[in-house]
Amino acid sequence: MNADTSPRQLNRVLRVRDGLAVTVGIVIGAGILGTPGLIAGYLGDPLVILGMWFFGGVVAGLSTLVLAEMAAALPEAGGKYVYARHAWGDTMGFVAGWSEIFVTRGFSGASKAVLISSYLFMLALGTTEAPDSVWVGVVALAIVLGYFVLHTRGLKASTTFQNVTTAIKIFIVLAIAAVGLAGGSAADTAPLVSGETTAGLLGYALAYQSISFAYYGWEDAAKLSEEVMEPHRALPRILLGGAMAVMVLYLLMNVALLTVLTPEQMAGSDLVARDATAAVFGDMAGTVVLVASLMILISSANVNFLGLPRVAFGLAREGLAPRSLANLDKRGTPRNALYMITAWIGMLALTGSFEFLIRFMMTVAITVDTMVLLGYFRLRAKRPDLERPFTMPGHPILPGLTILLYIAILVILVWSQPELALGAGLMLAALLVAGVVVSRMKAAEAR
Asked: Each residue of 225-250: pLDDT tens digit?
């Protein structure tokens, strides 16, 4: 393995454009490809669908501003776990870090591998539906192993791959949106008007889970803080610029889809972009979009393997994970952490599921994010002397509003899906107990 046997500092080699590529790369992927059909089935009304996508972008943008202050003040590897640890202590840092590894990013990486596998089967078999989930899971596992091999080549190779595939991805998303907008008026489908009945509280909750999954990753570049050049200036630009770029692209994409297809036609589709393009230009064009969607997903899934080992690295360096996870190989990659991440994502990918993975993931993620964002006020009170190169505008009203939105969303999710909330709560409770034990062990060793 040629690993360095002691933890050391990561190298600052990433620029703003690299960080933006990471942000756009991880966010635009499985969400915008796999969820529009689910959301259309939940809501039914075109204007409500667009409104929910806009609302999701606003929440992501506000969250980014809150996080940007903490990221610029604490530019350490690991992202949200770092801010939870500084604000609330080792126990909550443990919960934030390991929930991201085990659930939010682990489930996200697995869901992307499942979609890539499904689309490969559709392409190979010439069908609009993937085969039995067992075979989808087996191929998804092989895809996960392929990413592992790529990331053993080091950060330079993986970020170069990310920059190239992200550029291709942005071009593809804009092209799909342009096709829909140009061809929609010629298609014999309903125009973009309201009129269908919308879903009840459960429908809105399910739709928001899918939309928040599509936006999730707006904060992922923060995990690479220790490898970003001039992080005090660069991180706010990366985080906010990435979130806003994604919102614009998503709104364009959804307007294009809804111009071509009605919500009824979209409902239940595994790949609405393919269906919309095929409706205007025929099946061959739909196949082209299927190939393009694979490119988008390949770029997005790559960032899970780029960011998650850094979370494990940060946890290990602070004594909240096995020390071996902080060892770096000769290329500067946290190799042991990469082994662990690959094994976990691969195991989840074998389920061959998609909708369950994202629903469970987002219930946990929104809960943990609420705690992390509350750390903004905690740090303001606990560390008033902390240098803050970037400060959240509109303090305290705007950050307070952001946190109230998270609390309201969380209440709705728990109220409308009690069984799912119970499962997520049990997992978080287990992590909390483990965090207490590990934190006490760390404190005892320090004495």
From this structure: 666 677 667 777 777 788 888 888 88
Per cent of the chain over pLDDT 90 is 21
Spatial contact of 39 and 269, defined as CB atoms under 8 Å apart: no
Contact yes or no for 257/276 (Cβ under 8 A): yes
358 within domain boundaries: yes
* CA angle (184 as vertex; 183, 187 as ends), nearest 5: 90
- Print the domain residue range for 286: 16-441
Burial of 18 (0-12, 13-18, 19+ CB in 10 A): buried
Q: Does residue 273 lie within any of the structural domains?
A: yes
At residue 332, the 3 state secondary structure works out as coil
Characterise 147 by phi-psi region: left (phi > 0), alpha (psi -120 to 50), beta (else). alpha
Cβ within 8 Å of residue 108, ≥6 positions away: 30, 213, 216, 217, 304, 357, 358, 361
Please state, in angstroms and rounded to a whole number, the distance separating the CA atoms of residues 280 and 272. 13
Q: Global pTM?
A: 0.78
The phi, psi pair for 58, rounded to 5°, reads -65, -45
